[in-house]
From TrEMBL:
One of its GO terms (molecular function) is ubiquitin-like modifier activating enzyme activity. Keywords: Nucleotidyltransferase, Transferase. One of its GO terms (biological process) is cyclic threonylcarbamoyladenosine biosynthetic process. This is ThiF family adenylyltransferase. It comes from the Bacteria. The keyword Nucleotidyltransferase applies. It holds the Pfam family ThiF.
Length: 366
């Protein structure tokens, strides 16, 4: 027990501790946690059972007092320990009472029906998705988690949260200085403690790339959102060699790139936009020398929004880097979440570059 209560553990923890009261060992840990004056207990078990009754009986309308009575009787008959786990969040010193995974998932995804069927939800629960870069990637990861769109999520980023990140990353100032991977993993754990999230806190590197793509099962989808050009290139080449589809949002004009290397094994990376620079195998070596030219070529500089083009001209003069807005990042996260689901369920087979350009739609130029 000292482990999960130790200050050093609380600082680095990112996984919820799931304790089953039907286990004597876990029950002892629950008792010890409850004995700590600084641990907060959140017990909404009766409300969760009321919700379960409602979704399992959609044709019935229950008066509030009848619903509460039925939920109370159900808990007494089944037994709380059979239906609920105690879930401890070390970084919050909070112990929550939550339905066990099957019932938790059933209830939490009930409002997905039938935009996502139960059969589709079951398929998604077997999928492994990798997200590289956690600015747009944070919005993507949370969209996927909220819909329960994966079985395992692998997230890679070497960076810590800085104040200037908070124009586009939805988080708290209390997280300043924390690794972005840990922040995202904690947020997902607080949405759904049963989802598997694997962290690569050094970012995606040559040394850990094999593990990121294949350890514990091959990725079903790569969502690439990093700023490092060599990693953009090497991750695509790796995905292509393994037949893994790639998604990328660029946070300008709602630009989304889809590369279906699972269906088109010889498809050129970045839709062939870097062909003028040589063979794919030589591109990484030229990234330092031709980085700006590569970037302009693969984003189609002339197709960027006017404000993005103006900003590009100011980098290194009045601004330090490529600008990103929260509205664009959130749109990209939602779009990647939607397209991810379509790919993993076999509902779409297309590759290419697509725009969800709100300004263009509002101007009538669809």
């Amino acid at each position: 027990m000292e482990g999960i209560l130790a200050p050093t553990h609380k600082k680095v923890a990112y996984k919820a501790v799931v304790l089953d009261p039907q286990s004597q060992t876990d029950q002892a840990q629950i008792d010890e946690l409850l004995a700590q004056p600084y641990v907060t207990l959140i017990d909404t078990s009766l409300s969760q059972v009321e919700e379960l009754i409602k979704i399992n009986n959609p044709t019935e309308k229950f008066a509030p007092e009848i619903l509460t009575l039925k939920a109370t009787q159900f808990l007494e008959e089944i037994g709380k320990a059979a239906l609920f786990n105690f879930v401890f969040y070390p970084w919050r010193n909070t112990l929550t009472v939550l339905l066990k995974e099957k019932e938790f998932s059933h209830l939490r995804t009930s409002r997905n029906k039938y935009k996502i069927t139960q059969e589709e939800q079951d398929v998604l629960s077997t999928k492994i998705i990798g997200v590289v870069g956690l600015s747009v990637g944070q919005s993507v990861a949370l969209s996927l988690a909220m819909e329960r769109g994966f079985g395992e999520l692998r997230i890679a980023d070497f960076d810590t949260l800085e104040l200037s990140n908070m124009n586009r990353i939805r988080t708290s100032v209390v997280n300043l200085g924390e690794p972005k991977t840990r922040i995202v993993a904690r947020e997902i754990a607080e949405i759904d403690p049963y989802l598997k999230v694997t962290l690569f806190e050094d970012g995606l590197t040559e040394d850990n790339m094999d593990a990121f793509f294949e350890k514990g099962g091959k990725l079903d989808l790569l969502i690439e959102e990093c700023d490092n050009l060599p990693i953009k290139l090497t991750s695509r080449l790796k995905a292509k060699s393994l037949g893994i589809p790639v998604l990328m949002d660029t946070s300008d004009r709602g630009m989304i790139d889809i590369e279906r290397f699972d269906l088109e094994r010889e498809r050129p990376i970045f839709h062939g936009k870097l062909k003028e620079f040589g063979e794919e195998s030589t591109l990484v070596g030229g990234a330092k020398t031709h980085g700006q030219a590569y970037f302009s070529a693969f984003v189609d500089f002339d197709q960027l929004s006017e404000r993005a083009r103006e900003s590009m001209a100011e980098i290194g003069k009045t601004i330090t880097t490529w600008p990103q807005l929260a509205s664009s990042v959130l749109l990209g996260g939602a779009a990647c979440g939607h397209i991810s689901r379509s790919i993993l369920l076999g509902q779409s087979q297309f590759s290419g570059r697509f725009y969800i350009d709100i300004d263009q739609y509002l101007s009538g130029n669809k």
